[in-house]
Amino acid sequence: MRGSILLVAALVVLAGCAAPVSPGTDATTATTPTSAASPTTDSATTATAIPTTSPPSTTATTAATATPTATPTASPTPEPTETFTPASGYGPWGSEPVVVAVETPDDDRDYAAFVTEATAFWETNDARYLGYEVDYEVDADARDPDIVVHFVDTVPECGGQTDAVGCAPYLTDARQIDRPETVYIRTGFGDDSTVDIVEHELGHTLGLAHGDEPAELMNATGILYTLPRTNATDKAFPWDDPNFTVYVDDANASDPDAAREQIRHALDYFEAGAPGMPDNLTYTYVDDPADAEVRISFADTSPCAAGAASCAIGGGYDPDGDDALETYSDYRVVLVDLDTEAVGWHVGYWTAHYLGAEADEDKPEPFRNATYGERRSEWWT
């Protein structure tokens, strides 16, 4: 019977809020022009005003908190295995050091160091978790090893699972051992997560099943982080696909029908192929906010920064655990006490931002240094 730890890369949902912080001069009571804002990061609440002829703006920054979450995944139930009383003081491997060889892909990572760290964990904690002594000798090129730790791009089917990140024999007695035993470890994870996987799989070769102590390590699912990936702010298109669902909450809009028409003009502008933006975008309106990747609402006060005319709050995934989003999953635009005629411009501004144009000079022309009147014009024509 082979044990496995299943892939649960930590697709951590982060939220970032960005907003203008100038006094609400784009609102219905405005008498002078103001500007929207462009965030500098999507894992924090950061606002930076667009230079205009308005009074100087201030900058507000509030760090966001990332909370890793794991998605429970079904795991194989270990088949009943006959167990035997080990020799006094030792487990299935006996009193001699367990010789571990390492087979690696052709890259420059020090996989043997990961295995050495994992074996040191069990040597240090053998009495606590195993109830017997174990000693390892890691020799990457050992000719006659007891165990071969094989790092691979894809782990072979393991206990009926095809998405495992590791696989190892579940051994409780010396008579079960068929030297050399092979332990498979999937590549592509960060150093700490790779060590965790090796420790987990070696635990199976020491007689531990899923859920045994240390349970955080031996559970069939866990939080794993990948090697560093490109952040969403550095990608040309930071989404998984170009088809968006949209929910509009017009409860606080001064003219709901006109506001919806403004929103439609803005999104149609991008769907038709806005300059510098992807040319295959689609926007489908839905009635349930839970089904929407884009949510647009109206408010009397900004949830992001005092005095903001509009702001956007983005969510997404952080598989490499660096507290920065690598892929967006959704964003919310909040319009604060705006003139109805300015609604479309603000929606378009944030749409361009979350399509990869964080810098204003990368946005389509209508969103670069737009004047008070230009924001209320039919800029989409």
Automatic annotation (TrEMBL):
It comes from the Archaea. PROSITE patterns: PROKAR_LIPOPROTEIN. Residues 22-88 have a biased composition (Low complexity). Residues 22-93 are annotated as: Disordered. GO terms for molecular function: metallopeptidase activity. This is Matrixin. The lineage of its organism: Archaea, Methanobacteriati, Methanobacteriota, Stenosarchaea group, Halobacteria.
